[in-house]
Amino acid sequence: xxxxxxxxxxxxxxxxxxxxxxxxxxxxxxxxxxxxxxxxxxxxxxxxxxxxxxxxxxxxxxxxxxxxxxxxxxxxxxxxxxxxxxxxxxxxxxxxxxxxxxxxxxxxxxxxxxxxxxxxxxxxxxxxxxxxxxxxxxxxxxxxxxxxxxxxxxxxxxxxxxxxxxxxxxxxxxxxxxxxxxxxxxxxxxxxxxxxxxxxxxxxxxxxxxxxxxxxxxxxxxxxxxxxxxxxxxxxxxxxxxxxxxxxxxxxxxxxxxxxxxxxxxxxxxxxxxxxxxxxxxxxxxxxxxxxxxxxxxxxxxxxxxxxxxxxxxxxxxxxxxxxxx
Amino acid sequence: xxxxxxxxxxxxxxxxxxxxxxxxxxxxxxxxxxxxxxxxxxxxxxxxxxxxxxxxxxxxxxxxxxxxxxxxxxxxxxxxxxxxxxxxxxxxxxxxxxxxxxxxxxxxxxxxxxxxxxxxxxxxxxxxxxxxxxxxxxxxxxxxxxxxxxxxxxxxxxxxxxxxxxxxxxxxxxxxxxxxxxxxxxxxxxxxxxxxxxxxxxxxxxxxxxxxxxxxxxxxxxxxxxxxxxxxxxxxxxxxxxxxxxxxxxxxxxxxxxxxxxxxxxxxxxxxxxxxxxxxxxxxxxxxxxxxxxxxxxxxxxxxxxxxxxxxxxxxxxxxxxxxxx
Lengths: 326, 326
What we know:
The structure is a homodimer.
Chain A: E1 9-15, E2 19-25, E3 31-38, H1 45-61, E4 69-75, E5 79-80, E6 85-87, E7 97-98, H2 100-108, E8 112-115, H3 117-128, E9 137-142, E10 146-152, E11 155-156, H4 188-191, H5 193-206, H6 221-229, H7 233-257, E12 261-265, H8 273-286, E13 296-299, H9 304-318
Parallel strand pairs in A: 1-4, 4-8, 9-12, 12-13
Antiparallel strand pairs in A: 1-2, 2-3, 5-6, 6-7, 9-10, 10-11
Helix pairs in contact in A: 1-2, 3-9, 5-7, 6-7, 7-8
C-alpha cells in the first residue's frame, strides 16, 4: 500500500558545450539534488556515458534510491527526440550520429528521452514556466545558436523526423550573412551570439561616435548589454537592429503557427528591453493582420540556474516509463 | 437494424469568389450529386445563406433525404474553423466578421464546419489524396492568393485562434514588393497570380528578346504556362524566378515544421515542371541540412474539378455530428 503513494522522481541531464549538469527533480519541479562536471573532459562518447551513468547512480543512491526514479531526460544540442540520437552536432566533440539515448538506457536500465535544448526548454516552460496551461506556443532559445520548438494543440510538434523547429536556419535576408550551417542569410547569423557581435562591429564602423564597446577587445553580447545599461548609444543601436530582425523572423513564424505566446529564452534574452522592445515593435509591423496585438511575447520566467535541468527533467516525463530491472 | 447499416453522407460547399459549388459526398469521396450558382449574385450575406440552404435542401431531398446527411462542410476564403466565421475577406463582398457557420447551422439544423480554402484542401488531400496516411505534411494552395495548412502528428494545426498557415503573408524579401495585405515582401506578392504577372512584366522589360508574352494584352499565369509549353524563353524565366522564390519560402516553412511532404495545389501549380523544377532545386539549397533530400514535394493528385468540393466535404467529417431535429 505504501508503494502506491510514492511520488516518483526523474533525473534531468543538461549537456551543454562546456558543462554537464544532472539533477533529481520531483513532479513539481523541485530540484532534490544536483551536480555537474565538465563536458569537455570527455571527448570520447563512451567515456562520457560511463562517467555520466556512474555519477547519476551515485546521486540517486544518496537521494532516495533507484526505485524512486521514473525515467531520465536529457537536453543536448543537436539531439533528436524521435530517434534518440545526437546528429551532426557542430558544437560538441562527438561527431556524426551518436545514439545517446540507447547508450544511457542500456547502462541505467531506465527509460531515457533526449531532446535538443530548445525542445527541452519548451517542455520545461510548459511544465513549470511561462507556457504552463498553453496549448499553442512557440519557444525560441537564443544563445550561441538559435533553436526553437512549438506546441500544437497541447503537444510538442516533432515533425516527420524530429527535426522540427529549425527556425535559426530559416532565411531572413536572401543573399545575406554567411551562417555557420553554410547557408546565407539565416536568422541565426544575425540574432545569435556571433551575429550580435558582427552587428556591433558593423555599427561601430558605420559611425564615429564614441562608444564603450570600442574599448573592449573580445566583445560579447553580455558586455554589449552592460554598455546598453550605461546608456551607450551605439550598443543600444546593436540590440535595436538585432531586435528588429528577431521581430521580423518571429512575425513570419507566428503567421504560420498562430501561437498564443512566444517565449524567449537563452543568453541573448538577457539583453531584456534593449532587445525586446524593438523586437515587439517589428513583430507587430510584420505579423499577419488578423493576429496583430494578440500574441504575447515574453522572456522566460524560469530562474536561469534552474531552467536547463528543469527542461531536461520535463523530457523525462514525456517518455514512456520502462525499467530493465522490474 | 437496417438503420445501423446506413453509411452517412455529408454536404460539401465550396465558396469561391465567382462560384459556389455544393455537393453530396459519401465516405469514400464519391460525389453523389453536385450543383452550383454564382457567388456574385448575392452581395448580401442573408440572401446568400437563404439561397444556399434552399438549394442544399433541394439537392438532399432528391438524393437520399435529410436523414442521410451527417453534417455540412464549407470551404471559403478567409474562413476560420475555430470561430466558424469569415473574417475580413478581401476577395468577397461580405465585409467584416460573418458568422457563416452559425447562420447555416441554424437554417439546416445540422452540424456545420467551415475552413479557409487551404485548410479544406489539406483535409481533402489527407482524406482522399496525396497526403493520405501522412501525419506531418504541409499543403500550399497557390492561386489568386497563397494559403497553407499543415498537419502535426496526424491533426490539422489550427493555432491559438484558427489563423495558422498564413504562409502567404510571411516576409520573403524584406523591403520588397507591396502585397495586397499592405505589407512589403510577402511571398504572396511574388508567387500568387498577380505576382507572377508582375514578374512577367519585369522579365520582359529587362530583356529585348522576343516573347509570345509580348503579344498578349491581359497576361495571366495560365497564358504564361502556355507560352512555356511552346518553348518561350522569357516565359520559362518567369516561372524559374517564381519557382526559386517558392522553393526558398518552402524551405523556411519545412525547416520549422519538418514535414514528410509538401503538396502544392491551386491554379499556379498548373505551371507544372516549369514551376516545380526550380522550386525543388531552391528548396534543397535552402532547407535545414538534416532534412535535405527527405521532403517529398508534389502537386496535388486530386482531379481539379473534384478537389474543391472534396476539401469542403472533408471539413464536414471533422465537425462533431449534431442535429437540431433528432
